[in-house]
Specification:
5-stranded mixed beta sheet, 10% helix, 525 residues, mainly beta, globular, 32% strand
Length: 525
């Protein structure tokens, strides 16, 4: 989705301008989308599964063990190397100590490295992408996006529309004439860097749980931008232009050739907050939990509960003959509080399907482009706001399974812009792969597949007020070559690109062709 925002208007100059010598960071919390969260105020965009939550409105797992598994689509497309990549990401989380034992200074402010051979091939690391997605479904949102959130927009408060003027949060003019309303960023005890009732911070310092304009010790300012269609957005930027950005693993900021060596200070800080035994919420247990031992006939369900301190991922058992998932039972000690006293009960959870299921598929959000993945949303997350005395609030709540993460069968990506040529296609392909910066060659997906596979070629026709997709899905032997050709008269054909049938999805972005009429076909060579 494309937006056109002017690069001026309201400058948010946060408190870090005079506190940059302190080490600080921030994490963001994820929860179900609330009514005020819209694309028009720059909070929710296609592909988002939720929005930012305040401290106290967090969503988390309240069982100490969750399971994972791979369906046949994943195994066919990614093979054993893909399984190993996902399990390597899971191991990063399993290696974390309990939240009560975490020392944040043991974790770096930036764990990203670049493998230049993979960068040259525009490869996306499957392990690193998985690690980001796992953090999301453990309750963490993207911190850089939510440093500044445009909670409410009133153009008259910020600018004089007739003069296109703006003022920064300290009331200093960007132009010579100030808006008559003025701005008091400190009203109602507001935090410097945020504008009460308008711009709020949903990033929280892992040490004091207050809004912070830092991520992994890098401070951010921001611009509020808007356009004639009524859409607004806040673009953060670093005060120190040489500082690293998108450092948090939770930020979905990895570029081609990049990979994470582990979690960062802020990622771990967010998990420690969610799982902390000092973080007590009223929660019900997940479906499938039952009492055992002396609690066999009864157990306490809804109760005030501390965080579980640590979550461990284990594989869901699989039938060796059929490949079907087998039920498993996890027994654990449940901690809850009644009348101010911590109590324990023995319970068991019967898990019939993986809590986290990894798949491969044809992923599209209904907009032009090639997505990396899609995943289960937050609509089934249980909101316990009322039970926590937060009537009609956004949370807190409990994350409920099943989480399905579907990686795109990411194939070739080509684009044509009519202002250049209707008969030339630029290769902009990116591929999922596995690499670690060692001398080992990257493993590029999909793995070779024998037999007959179905190639999908999707062309997006993009005009000024129109966009539509057209698909070709030829069945052929693996490795068969196809050419996408174009013509204006159905006689003379020009090849735009060739693609191999390897079970992937090829995307062709055909933007604003200048021809009055044009035909396209996919033909096997």
């Amino acid at each position: 989705m494309k937006f056109s925002f002017p690069k001026f208007t309201v400058c948010l100059s946060a408190a870090f301008l005079f506190a940059s010598t302190f080490e600080s960071g921030a994490f963001a919390l994820l929860g179900p989308v609330q009514p005020w969260m819209q694309a028009s105020n720059g909070v929710i965009f296609p592909g988002d599964i939720g929005g930012p939550m305040c401290i106290g409105n967090e969503y988390r797992w309240n069982v100490p063990v969750v399971t994972y598994g791979f369906d046949q689509s994943f195994l066919d497309y990614f093979g054993s190397n893909g399984v190993a990549a996902v399990e390597s990401a899971i191991q990063v989380l399993n290696n974390l100590p309990p939240a009560s034992q975490i020392v944040l200074t043991n974790y770096p402010f930036d764990s990203q490295q670049i493998y230049y051979a993979a960068q040259a091939q525009r490869l996306l690391d499957l392990k690193s992408e998985t690690l980001t997605l796992l953090l999301e479904h453990l309750g963490l949102a993207q911190p850089m996006r939510y440093i500044y959130v445009l909670y409410y927009w009133d153009a008259s408060y910020f600018i004089n529309p007739s003069r296109n003027e703006g003022i920064d949060i300290f009331g200093m003019p960007i132009s010579l004439e100030l808006d008559p309303y003025g701005i008091d960023p400190g009203a109602s005890g507001g935090t410097p860097g945020y504008i009460t009732n308008f711009v709020e911070g949903f990033n929280f310092d892992p040490a004091i749980f207050e809004p912070s304009a830092y991520i992994n010790n890098t401070g951010y300012a921001g611009w509020v931008s808007f356009n004639s269609s009524g859409e607004q957005s806040i673009a953060p930027f670093t005060v120190n232009q040489s500082a690293s950005t998108d450092t948090a693993v939770a930020d979905f900021g990895l570029l081609g050739g990049g990979f994470y060596t582990g979690l960062t200070y802020d990622d771990v800080g967010g998990l420690a907050y969610l799982l902390s035994t000092n973080n007590v919420n009223f929660e019900t247990l997940l479906p499938g939990v039952c009492g055992i031992g002396t609690n066999a006939n009864s157990f306490v369900n809804g109760a005030w509960r501390p965080g579980v301190d640590k979550i461990t991922f284990i594989p869901q058992p699989v039938d060796s003959q059929t490949g079907a998932f087998l039920p498993t039972t996890n027994c654990f000690t449940d901690n809850y509080i009644t009348n101010g006293i911590l109590k324990q009960q023995q319970v068991a959870r019967i898990i019939s399907q993986p809590d986290f299921l990894f798949s491969a598929g044809d992923v599209t959000y209904g907009i032009p482009g090639a997505a990396i993945c899609t995943r289960t949303g937050t609509t089934n997350w249980l909101n316990n706001a009322t039970a926590n005395g937060n009537t009609n609030g956004a949370g807190p709540g409990v994350i409920q399974p099943q989480v399905q993460i579907i990686f795109n069968k990411l194939g070739r990506l080509f684009s044509t812009v009519g202002s250049t040529s209707d008969t030339e296609a630029v290769d902009e392909s990116e591929f999922l792969a596995s690499f670690d910066g060692s001398t080992n060659a990257p493993v590029i997906y999909p793995i070779p597949q024998p037999g007959t596979n179905q190639l999908t070629v999707r062309m997006w026709l993009i005009l000024q007020n129109f966009q539509e997709s057209f698909e070709w899905q030829p069945d052929s032997l693996s490795g068969a070559q196809f050419a996408m050709e174009t013509s204006t008269n159905l006689i003379d054909w020009t090849a735009l690109f060739t693609v191999t049938n390897n079970g992937s999805v090829c995307t062709y972005l055909n933007e604003t062709p200048v021809s009055t009429s044009r035909f396209y076909r996919l033909i096997q060579q």
